[in-house]
């Protein structure tokens, strides 16, 4: 059996993790073109990677307010720090179906999103990656608790 170099094996593992992790992972360049679209996003949005990669985010998701989203990305690109979008600020960025309609009564997936800078080897922030977490259970519990307090 042919032994693979450790670096190649680790690269393969990283690709497998990105595709199968239970959260959305998207990489956007400075022009907001989609560079990476993982399996979570394919499954939940119904949009295939080959249909979105290389296209502007706002073309694929025209419902995202351009100026608002660009303001959210400003600290990432200008300061090289993270930015956050919580379900309390905006229930979702990407309209994704709720995958647990029997146990969770929601029309869509509530989301918590972290926008992370991605640096080149020289330290320049040239891209960012978004991690999208399904916050539906948390949101519904919080909304139900608020309703019960009334």
TrEMBL record:
<dbReference type="InterPro" id="IPR013767">
    <property type="entry name" value="PAS_fold"/>
</dbReference>
<dbReference type="InterPro" id="IPR035965">
    <property type="entry name" value="PAS-like_dom_sf"/>
</dbReference>
<feature type="domain" description="PAS">
    <location>
        <begin position="12"/>
        <end position="78"/>
    </location>
</feature>
<dbReference type="Pfam" id="PF00989">
    <property type="entry name" value="PAS"/>
</dbReference>
<protein>
    <submittedName>
        <fullName>PAS domain-containing protein</fullName>
    </submittedName>
</protein>
<dbReference type="InterPro" id="IPR000014">
    <property type="entry name" value="PAS"/>
</dbReference>
């Amino acid at each position: 059996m042919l032994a693979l170099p450790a670096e190649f094996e680790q690269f393969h593992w990283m690709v497998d993790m990105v595709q199968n992790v239970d959260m959305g992972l998207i990489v956007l360049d400075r022009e907001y073109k989609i560079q990476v679209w993982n399996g979570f996003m394919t499954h939940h949005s119904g949009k295939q990677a080959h249909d979105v990669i290389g296209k502007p985010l706002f073309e694929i998701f025209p419902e995202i307010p351009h100026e608002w989203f660009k303001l959210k990305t400003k600290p990432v690109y200008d300061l090289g720090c993270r930015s956050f979008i919580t379900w309390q600020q905006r229930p979702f960025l990407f309209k994704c179906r709720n995958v647990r309609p029997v146990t969770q009564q929601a029309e869509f997936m509530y989301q918590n999103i972290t926008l992370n800078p991605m640096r080149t080897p020289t330290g320049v922030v040239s891209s960012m990656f978004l991690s999208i977490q399904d916050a539906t259970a948390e949101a519904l519990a919080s909304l139900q608790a608020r309703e019960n307090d009334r």
